[in-house]
Each structure stands twice: as structure tokens, then as C-alpha cells.
Target: Triosephosphate isomerase
Amino acid sequence: MQRRKKIVVGNWKMNPNALVDAKSIFSKIKRVALRAKKTQTVICPPFVHVAPLVSLAGKSSIAVGVQDVFWEDQGSFTGSISASQAKGVGAQYAIVGHSERRKQGEDNEQVARKLFSATKQGLVGILCVGESARDREGNFFAQLKDQILASLSNIAGGVLARSVIIAYEPVWEVGRSDFQAMKPSDIHETSIFIRRVITDVFGPEVAQQVPVLYGGSVSVENAVATVFEGEVDGLLIGRQSLIPENFCQIIKQINAGK
Model:
């Protein structure tokens, strides 16, 4: 059976300031991404850089996404970007429910509306879920389950299977050093749990089609173990995606399977 493409997503957050720097980083990543035939590379820059990077991507396999969308298509929502606007400038993916936005007060209902809007407009939604803390008793699984079910409450099974990626983003682990990074065995356990939650509602066929990414502390040193020992479909990478040498090395490693 042919291996499903791995997915490596770079979330640039509010970086870089200058378009010239964004183009420089993107161009370096693009050169490597074009040769990584077994891996889908996605870059999610600040919205002001989306259209120029879409132009730079051209008809190549590297894709550009946005870091958030609003649930309405238009209206009096100062500072918000709609999914239709994102689609209109060439974005193909949209991150929703990122922990940094949840920290600002975004709740599961809002995330669900954003995800529905993104998929309705033809974007692939990258749904971020993850517990704020872990306990030895495993009570954190309940928080994770609630997030998944609530965030997918507006999504039909067919849409989930073809247009949603789930990024497991343990809030307590993001930004830690390699020495503090989550063990691949724990990542594997959590990815199994995520698929079980989806299976219970949407069935096993849908669950197997939904890519599950890991979005904790990822580096050149732990990327391969995270993906292949953790048995996830790819990575959602923050600060390392702004260092083209490191990000490109991760793409090469994941594409090679080692």
C-alpha cells in the first residue's frame, strides 16, 4: 500500500516583519519542498504576506495557508479575516483553534464555527486541540475529547475525511527544549485516542482518513522520532519554521522516512 503523504506545516505566527524576509525564507523552503515528493509542505505566514507568497509558490506543490479565519463571510468585524477572503487571495489551508487564540478567550463553539466556515469555502482546516496540563490519572483525556467533539460539531463525516487535519498541540509542552519534549510513546498514545474519539462518532473509515499532526516542541533532533515512533501524519511547527536551514532539514528527514 502506498504511503500517505506526510504533512509539514510551518506556522510563522507574527513573523517576519518585512515582506523581503518572508520571500527569502519561503524561497529557500520552496526549493526543498519541490523535491520532497512524499511530503506536503504548507506555510502559514501573517495574512499580509499570504498573497505575495501565493504568487511566489506559483503552480508548485508547496501550499500557503492562513493562521485564523472568522466565521462570517463579511460584515462589521474589525480586524477579522473571513475564510472567503483567505480563499480569494489563494490560501489553501486555515489554522483554527490554535492554543494562542484559545488563551485569548476563543472557545470551542467559536472554533467550530470557524472550522465550518473554512471548509465551506474550500479550505483545508487545521484544527488545533490539546490539553493545558497532564495528570497521572489521565483526566486530561476528557478535556481533549471535549475539544475534539465540540470543535467538530458542525462538520459532516465526509467533510472531515477530506477537508480537516487535526493538530495535537499540548499547551503545556509548546516551546519547551528538546530535553523536555514529549516522548514519542506518549504522542502515539494520544494519536490513538484522537482517532478513537473520531471513530466513536464518525466511524473507523473516516477516522483513518483524517491526518493527525503533532504541534508541540519540534526540532531537527526529534522530528523523525516524533513522526515515525509517535505514528502521526506530520508536524505543525512554530519557531523552527522561520529558520529555513532547520525547517528544510526536517522536511528532508520526514520525506526520507528517517
Notes: The chain has a mean pLDDT of 94. The chain is about 45% helix and 15% strand. The chain has one domain: 6-256. The first helix runs from residue 19 to 35.
